[in-house]
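Q: Here's a chain of 178 amino acids. Please give me its 3D structure as C-alpha cells.
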Amino acid sequence: MTNVFENPVPILFVGVLIFGICFALWTQKRQRKFAAGMVLAILLMIGGVALERLVETESEKVGATIRQIAKDMEANDVNSVISHISGSSAELKSAATAILSRVKVESISVKRNLTVTVSPSGTKAVAKFNAVGRVEDKTATFGTQNVPRFMTLEFAKEQGVWRVFDYKDEMPQKGMGQ
C-alpha cells in the first residue's frame, strides 16, 4: 500500500483505464451511467493524486532528511548537520565535525538515483544515492573541488525523527547502475 502513496502513476493508470472503458461504452450505448462513470473516474483520479500528495511515507521522510542535511551543509552549519546524526554515534559526530571544520561547502547536489529502503519494523532505513559536493579547502591547499560520491546512509528512527547512525561513501560509479 505504501507504493500508492509514493507514486501517483498507479492511481492515474487505473483511473484512465476506468475512464476509457466508460467512454467506449458511452459512445456505443449513450447511457448516462457510463457518462457518470467517466466523471467518477476523473474525480477518483483527482482525489487519489491529492491523497498521494498529502500522505508522507517513511521513505519520503528519509529523503526529506537527506535534502535537509544537504541544505545544512551548504549553509556550513556544522551544528545542524550534527543534529541529524544519532546520539549513539559519537564517533560519526566527531568525524563529521572534523571534516566540516576543514572545508567550506559551496553546494551539494543529491542525484535522482536516491533509493530508500525502510525496514518492516519502520525503525531503520537505508538510503543509497549519488551526490556531488563543491567544496573549498579552508587551508587553500587544494582550492575548490567537485567531489562526487556514492553514499549509503543508515538511519534509525529516534523519538519520531530519522537520524543517521552509519554511512559509507564510495566511488560514484557504484551508483551508476541504480
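Q: Can you summarize the key feature?
A: The longest strand covers residues 144-158.
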